[in-house]
From TrEMBL:
Similarity comment: family membership: Belongs to the triosephosphate isomerase family.
Biological process terms in GO annotation: gluconeogenesis; glyceraldehyde-3-phosphate biosynthetic process; glycerol catabolic process; glycolytic process
Any single Gene Ontology cellular-component annotation: cytosol
Subunit structure: Homodimer.
Function comment: Involved in the gluconeogenesis. Catalyzes stereospecifically the conversion of dihydroxyacetone phosphate (DHAP) to D-glyceraldehyde-3-phosphate (G3P).
Keywords for this protein: Cytoplasm, Gluconeogenesis, Glycolysis, Isomerase
A Pfam family hit: TIM
Phylogenetic placement of the source organism: Bacteria, Bacillati, Actinomycetota, Actinomycetes, Pseudonocardiales
Protein name (record): Triosephosphate isomerase
Catalytic activities: D-glyceraldehyde 3-phosphate = dihydroxyacetone phosphate
Active site, renumbered: 101 (electrophile), 173 (proton acceptor)
Compartmental location: Cytoplasm
Enzyme class: isomerase
Length: 256
């Protein structure tokens, strides 16, 4: 049975000023002892404008904390005003980039084809995509959440080889749980994460499914991480609001 190192990734969204961003990284680094990282991988996903400074901190102090971005253009370069490319993220040492977050799908009208292109771009440039998917409340209430999520999985990974899929992190983020304080029950999270892994096994083989990390995201806090991560198919969390508070985030990491 393959072992999967848990990942806790903090999605800062469009929050904090530059000084606050630097201070938060320093406090996380100060609070988590080096030996902690042997157990759990921790990443922060700040706004683009903070990445360079975080790179300097991480490199300068040889921190084991990883960092990444919240979005990537599907294009490598060109006339795409305001966008940031895969090569730019790679040059800044980003380990991760979120792709397909529900806020991008909702406010920037990103469909499965765009998400798929972004997953491919990230992989091409050696930045691990954290591929987000999840149902809205009406889909869940109608009982269609598992099929909806597995369909999003299939569409987002279309055209990838099993070898490429091994380098993707999948994040199940039910839209009704994001930023609402309504965390999914551990049974609900496990149900979908297990279904996603079963679909990966069907499409790419058991060996691949066994190594892909599947995270849960949606109102995770230090009080809920323990039960969530104890689930067989939940390999960590994508954390929004709780990742902005150094004490809460490091407590959450320590309990993962
Ligand atoms: C997110 O934005 O990915 C997220 C999970 O947010 P929150 O933890 O605030 O629900």
């Amino acid at each position: 049975m393959a072992s999967r190192q848990p990942l806790i990734a903090g999605n800062w969204k469009m929050n904090l000023n530059h000084l606050e961003a630097i201070a938060l990284v320093q406090r996380i680094a100060f609070s988590l002892p080096e030996k902690y990282y042997a157990k759990v991988e921790v990443a922060v996903l700040p706004p683009f404008v903070d990445i360079r400074s975080i790179q300097t901190l991480v490199d300068g102090d040889k921190l084991l904390l990883k960092y990444g971005a919240q979005d990537v253009s599907p294009h490598d370069s060109g006339a795409y005003t305001g966008d940031v490319s895969g090569p730019m993220l790679a040059k800044l040492g980003c380990s991760y980039v979120t792709v397909g977050h529900s806020e991008r799908r909702e406010y920037h009208h990103e469909d499965d084809a765009v998400v798929n292109a972004k997953v491919k771009t990230a992989l091409k440039h050696g930045v691990t995509p954290i591929f987000c998917l999840g149902e809205k409340v009406d889909v869940r209430e109608a009982g269609g959440h598992v099929a909806f999520c597995t369909d999003q999985l299939v569409a987002g990974l279309a055209g990838l080889t099993a070898e490429q899929v091994r380098n993707v992190v999948v994040a199940y983020e039910p839209v009704w749980a994001i930023g609402t304080g309504k965390v999914a029950s551990s049974a609900d999270a496990q149900e979908v994460c297990a279904a996603l892994r079963a679909k990966l096994a069907e499409l790419y083989g058991e060996d691949t499914a066994a190594v892909v990390r599947v995270l849960y995201g949606g109102s995770v806090k230090s009080g809920s991480i323990g039960e969530l991560i104890a689930q067989k198919d939940v390999d960590g969390a994508l954390v929004g609001g709780a990742s902005l508070d150094a004490d809460e985030f490091t407590k959450l990491c320590a309990l993962a």
